[in-house]
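Tokens for chain A. Residues wanted.
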């Protein structure tokens, strides 16, 4: 191992430690690591830029801008209230409806945005019912990560994997969408036995929910109609992006531009609402991992993994799935996925069939976030919303529900992947 390899490993380790311990803001830690690589002449500006996945960055920016405009219409609040009314105020039915809403929205929107929209509505409805909102919020945490696993744009790890491996929207529907649907059904069955049989609300409180007026949630009816039409077109464009010859990032940015033009919303406010720190974090992280690629450390790690598994694809699949899930329960899955992507690409260049490994990485990293309260950003955000409203979700309380459910989801994923690829 030469000096540059050692330096790149040290910078990578220090950067990851700073991100995971939150000693520094993760965006600052990632950019600092990338700058150190340039200072030590491991990367120059051109090589640093070459490691940035601009397709991933473009999808994130485009979808963040799009959602920022759509939510001003009141569409998401309308959906939540309408669902509560359809449930006739029945506690278990509302839990199922909000689970489905959260999972479906998370399949197409950022998970954090989804829980920011659905969480407060959940608390408002459960307070009307005079039932504890914590079980509802725990189910929504799991729903957000399960739904995000299902599609190319549902979770940042999937965006990264899809862009790097040139996988389409339909590839994800077929390989992560199917197991996600099975896992969602199994999770709801589990929640019925944990919570569903114990819910009770008075007839008077259920009537109060049924009387809610969803129309009052609409802030801009014209924009809401435009948003619905555009969302349908976006999904179709993602599905047929290879046929129409457009990158996923182009579709996302085009959608953002169109809705900004037709909505006439304040540009400064919409642009300011984008999570730019997340974008900066991704750019810096690509550079830090690029340092390992530039010095050949990734090649060494790939060869080591091939030696350990003796080139057995099924063993690698199981290893990546379970290690991804367990680590992602406690650590940010984005740095982990960013590190494994070039590793799998390198194994592919060595002649190994890595097609199944992408799905193992996606399922493990995305579903693993359900293991603990710190496993994914949506978990932390929703627990924060709950605490501010006076309903604290403790780490231990969530662990008793989330970790067994996560293990169940990985067992289902294991069976699915083995049946399909082994």
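Reply:
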């Amino acid at each position: 191992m030469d000096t540059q390899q050692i330096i790149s490993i040290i910078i990578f380790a220090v950067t990851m430690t700073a991100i995971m311990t939150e000693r520094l803001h993760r965006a600052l830690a990632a950019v600092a690591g990338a700058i150190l690589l340039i200072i030590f002449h491991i990367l120059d500006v051109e090589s640093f830029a070459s490691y940035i996945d601009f397709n991933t960055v473009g999808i994130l920016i485009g979808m963040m801008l799009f959602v920022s405009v759509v939510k001003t219409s009141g569409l998401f609040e309308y959906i939540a209230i309408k669902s509560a009314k359809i449930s006739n105020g029945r506690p278990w039915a509302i839990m199922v409806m909000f689970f489905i809403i959260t999972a479906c929205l998370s399949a197409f929107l950022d998970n954090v945005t989804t829980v920011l929209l659905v969480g407060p509505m959940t608390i408002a409805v459960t307070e009307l019912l005079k039932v504890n909102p914590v079980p509802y919020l725990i189910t929504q945490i799991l729903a957000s990560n399960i739904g995000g696993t299902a599609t190319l744009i549902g979770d940042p790890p999937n965006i990264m994997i899809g862009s790097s491996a040139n996988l389409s929207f339909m590839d994800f529907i077929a390989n992560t969408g199917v197991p996600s649907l099975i896992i969602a059904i199994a999770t709801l069955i589990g929640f019925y036995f944990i919570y569903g049989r114990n819910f009770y609300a008075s007839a008077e409180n259920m009537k109060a929910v049924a009387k809610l007026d969803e129309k009052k949630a609409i802030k801009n009816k014209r924009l809401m109609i435009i948003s619905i039409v555009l969302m349908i077109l976006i999904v179709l464009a993602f599905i047929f992006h290879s046929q129409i010859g457009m990158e996923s990032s182009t579709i996302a940015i085009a959608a953002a531009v169109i809705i900004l033009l037709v909505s006439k919303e304040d540009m400064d406010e919409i642009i300011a609402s984008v999570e730019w720190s997340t974008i900066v974090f991704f750019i810096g992280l690509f550079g830090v991992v690029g340092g390992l690629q530039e010095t050949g450390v990734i090649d060494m790690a790939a060869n080591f993994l091939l030696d350990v598994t003796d080139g057995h694809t099924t063993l690698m699949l199981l290893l990546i799935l379970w290690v991804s899930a367990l680590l992602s329960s406690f650590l940010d899955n984005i740095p982990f996925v960013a590190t494994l992507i070039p590793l799998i690409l390198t194994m592919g260049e060595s002649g190994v069939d890595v097609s199944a490994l992408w799905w193992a990485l996606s399922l493990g990293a995305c579903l693993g976030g359900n293991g603990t309260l710190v496993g994914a950003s949506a978990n932390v955000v929703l627990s924060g919303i709950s605490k501010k409203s006076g309903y604290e979700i403790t780490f231990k309380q969530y662990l008793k529900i989330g970790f067994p459910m996560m293990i169940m989801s990985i067992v289902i994923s294991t069976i699915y992947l083995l049946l399909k690829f082994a």
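The mean pLDDT is 88. Residues 110 and 154 are 6 Å apart (CA to CA).
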